Amino acid sequence: MVEEQNRIVCETCPHHCRLVEGARGVCRACINDGGSIVPENYGRLTSLALDPIEKKPLARFMPGTFVVSVGSYGCNLRCPFCQNAEISQAGASDVPWRSVSPEELVSLTCEARSRDPRVVGIAYTYNEPLVGWEYARDCARIAHKEGLVNVLVSNGCVELCVIDELTGLIDAANIDLKGFTDAFYDACAAGRGALECVKRTIERLAADPSCHLEVTTLVVPGMNDSEAEIDAAARWLAGLDGGRGAETLTYHVTRFFPQWSMTDRAATPVQDVHRLADVARRHLNHVYIGNC
Ligand code: SF4
Ligand code: SF4
Fold first, then answer.
1. Residue whose CA is closest, atom 3 of ligand 2?
2. Domain residues for 154?
3. What's the maximum distance between 2 C-alpha atoms anywhere in the chain?
4. Ligand 1: distance of its center to the CA of 270 in Å?
5. Looking at the CA of 191, which ligand is closest?
6. Pairing relation of β-strands 172-176 and 212-219?
7. What pLDDT, in 10s, does the model give residues 86-133?
8. Atom 7 (ligand 1): residue with closest C-alpha?
9. Tell me, what CATH number does 258's domain have?
10. Does the CB atom of residue 30 touch ligand 1 within 6 A?
11. What is the CA angle 131-137-140, rounded to 5?
């Protein structure tokens, strides 16, 4: 957090919002409260569900188990195809929420585990969990004490100081690599340097032996569906983790459906998803297709 005249600069993500007292950031989740940037959405849950871990998606982490999945409101991106726009593009007054403390969340997850031993942990997901990363951190610490695992589903578009705060707490992550061009991230209103920021996050998590990493690209027709782009992304992923990425990383190539403000095109043809997954397999050993 940096002070600039009357404004406080939030350093969580590439937007680096400069907020006067009482102002909210682009994400609608963080606010300048009394000269400090605080996550106003802390513990405010809009969504809570028990999901198979494969739905996150995680294909190669504790298959057959379930995670209590929670989300709040707010996101630092504005992807026109967002499936969760009613919460990701909302602020506190736009959507119903209920307050759930970290202790309460862990307690209800333990109760779910006592009813079904296939429940293994908590997933921070649905909206963008890292615009309120403090809640994930606090829940994850208590969850680990109870023998639960922590799963992060994120756009990855945060500065490394946030990832550092969560090191050792997140057991598995699925990070979006939305596209492999600046133009794609511009279309998601992600802020300057967003692609490089996401790449740094993926690079850091890939090198962390305590975190299982999977990466997802939603293939949107006309935006990121060229063989050259998927080839470049997969080649880069394969080079991570000291050149072991081909074996250690899992990559999901998933199908777009018209959503929210992107209804001007049809769903990705299934054969295109398969073809692009085969392109990724030139470099990576663990490639999955989704939504087909
Ligand atoms: S998390 Fe990003 S979008 Fe939200 S206030 Fe901080 S810099 Fe702005
Ligand atoms: S990053 Fe995810 S939650 Fe945020 S707008 Fe994009 S698709 Fe929606």
1. 127
2. 2-290
3. 55
4. 36
5. 1
6. parallel
7. 999 999 999 999 999 999 999 999 999 999 999 999 999 999 999 999
8. 16
9. 3.20.20.70
10. yes
11. 130
